[in-house]
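Design request, tokens follow.
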């Protein structure tokens, strides 16, 4: 068994230190477990993945090479190049960690895929949460409407803490020391995701037993003091192939029989077999690198690279990024992604930032989530979502406690206390009015824009806000 610790992969971006701790730690623990099980393992540091494979082939002269279908286009191209360079056959098997195959998106959901249909198809095929007649348990395929509650009026959600590894884990500490000289986003110091199948099972069990019930209603809610809310923290082990998604979805569905509320169970199953597979399908469905529907060419806001910020919502998300390489979904979409959408950050610059910032990042998940979902940049052709996830400070105010005590006021679009999200939101609508005007789902937002009589002042404020975001003064 060959595993390559590629110096290029570890150093190509200023990653969160916890990404290196998670990925290298998972590889080294897996190598040790395979050796204990009788495999001969070559865990090989090398300048690049290709160099590692070629060096291994030179040293060991294998008769053939078997590899799982890579989870990225560049990985697939690399396997093709290696197959041509090596004198032995290279066999590509099924991808690890997915329920669907590249190409299944349109096969299941048609040429203009939408998540709801795709999810129904996958759920039906797997027999998840179905009643005796093959219909959805609880009478509906989606309980989304129940799963959008604002947070309770207290600092913490008050659910039992997630499974977390031993903070003094010696391998984690050794990897932190070993990688300390590499450029990094934040100091790190807290691994929060499982790095072995055993740890991943423990994390899943703890989530299902103690946290799942609150997952549904508070899926979209944010609290400044509660970094994990009721999220599962399973994306890392799922993406690393430590936990099969089918087992996760089946265990989630089985929680219904133990009394978990149907809205929470359905909400969780939807994330794992719906959104996760939908994103995987979209990754293979279109090119991402140059997509830029809104022709955005701005920089990543300086606060995201570590400049101090007075935006309390951004500060809370960045605290998670810098310490753990983790922020939950709504922080990623409606705070960090929304800020970059409204500020006009270039999609690929945003993608590289997300890649550096999160422990669970990889090409397939990054590109559709950032370029498609957060930045609505996936043109030409039908996109992943039918409208941009653009929101003013009013959304963040409703769904979090961040605005209380913030230096800014989410209701103000101009003046010294104007919330950057609010000024930028109205400016975004005005800037892209022609394109958005063709979209019936944006009609209400554009009618509200037309009612504003202070648009010139709002747009001047937004221009100043964009400069401040770029320079690190917001
Ligand atoms: C801009 C942006 C960037 C993102 N970057 C990543 C990333 O780098 N890696 C990553 O795995 N996910 C990413 N996501 C998706 C999602 O935010 C994370 O999977 C989730 O926050 C991980 O935390 P969790 O395990 O506690 O998730 P939970 O909220 O507990 O959800 C359960 C599981 O559902 C899956 N899931 C839910 N939504 C998605 C989605 N949109 N895409 C893929 N899987 C999903 C994940 O496997 C997750 O573990 C991103 C989303 C956005 C909007
Ligand atoms: S006022 Fe604006 S910047 Fe401050 S927390 Fe609320 S949304 Fe964020």
């Amino acid at each position: 068994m060959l595993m390559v610790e590629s110096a290029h992969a570890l150093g190509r971006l200023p990653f969160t230190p916890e990404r290196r701790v998670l990925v290298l730690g998972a590889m080294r623990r897996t190598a040790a477990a395979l050796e204990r099980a009788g495999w001969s393992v070559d865990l090989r540091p090398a300048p690049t993945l290709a160099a590692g494979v070629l060096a291994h082939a030179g040293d060991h002269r294998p008769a053939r090479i078997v590899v799982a279908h890579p989870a990225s286009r560049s990985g697939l191209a690399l396997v093709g190049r290696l197959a041509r360079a090596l004198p032995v056959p290279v066999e590509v098997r099924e991808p690890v960690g997915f329920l669907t195959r590249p190409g299944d998106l349109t096969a299941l959901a048609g040429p203009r895929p939408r998540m709801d249909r795709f999810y129904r198809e996958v759920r039906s095929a797997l027999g998840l949460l179905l009643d005796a007649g093959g219909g959805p348990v609880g009478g509906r395929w989606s309980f989304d409407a129940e799963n959008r509650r604002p947070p309770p009026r207290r600092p913490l959600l008050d659910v039992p803490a997630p499974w977390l590894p031993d903070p003094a884990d010696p391998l984690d500490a050794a990897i932190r020391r070993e990688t300390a000289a590499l450029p990094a986003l934040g100091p790190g110091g807290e691994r929060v995701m499982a790095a072995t199948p055993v740890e991943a099972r423990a994390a899943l069990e703890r989530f299902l037993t103690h946290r799942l019930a609150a997952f549904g209603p508070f899926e979209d809610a944010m609290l400044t003091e509660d970094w994990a809310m009721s999220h599962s923290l399973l994306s890392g082990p799922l993406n690393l192939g430590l936990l099969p998604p089918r087992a996760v979805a089946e265990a989630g569905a089985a929680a219904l029989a133990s009394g978990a509320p149907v809205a929470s169970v359905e909400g969780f199953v939807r994330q794992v077999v719906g959104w996760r597979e939908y994103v995987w399908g979209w990754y293979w469905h279109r090119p991402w690198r140059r997509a830029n529907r809104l022709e955005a060419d701005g920089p990543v806001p300086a606060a995201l690279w570590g400049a101090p910020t007075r935006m309390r919502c951004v500060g809370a998300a960045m605290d998670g990024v810098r310490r753990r390489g983790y922020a939950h979904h709504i922080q990623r979409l409606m705070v960090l992604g929304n800020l970059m959408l409204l500020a006009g950050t270039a999609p690929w610059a945003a993608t590289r930032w997300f890649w550096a910032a999160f422990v669970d990042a990889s090409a397939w998940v990054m590109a559709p989530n950032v370029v498609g979902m957060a930045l609505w940049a996936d043109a030409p052709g039908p996109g992943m979502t039918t409208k941009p996830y653009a929101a003013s400070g009013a959304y963040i105010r409703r769904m979090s406690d961040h605005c209380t005590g913030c230096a800014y006021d989410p209701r103000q679009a101009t003046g010294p206390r104007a919330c950057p999200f609010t000024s930028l939101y109205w400016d975004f609508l005005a800037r892209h009015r022609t394109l958005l005007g063709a979209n019936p789902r944006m009609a209400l937002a554009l009618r509200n824009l037309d009612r504003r009589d202070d648009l010139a002042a709002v747009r001047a404020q937004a221009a100043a806000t964009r400069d401040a975001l770029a320079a690190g003064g917001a």
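Comment from the thread starter after seeing the answer: thanks! The pocket of flavin-adenine dinucleotide (ligand 1) is lined by residues 231-235, 238-239, 271-272, 275-276, 279, 328-329, 332-333, 337, 354, 358, 360-361, 365-366, 369-370, 373-374 (CB under 6 Å).
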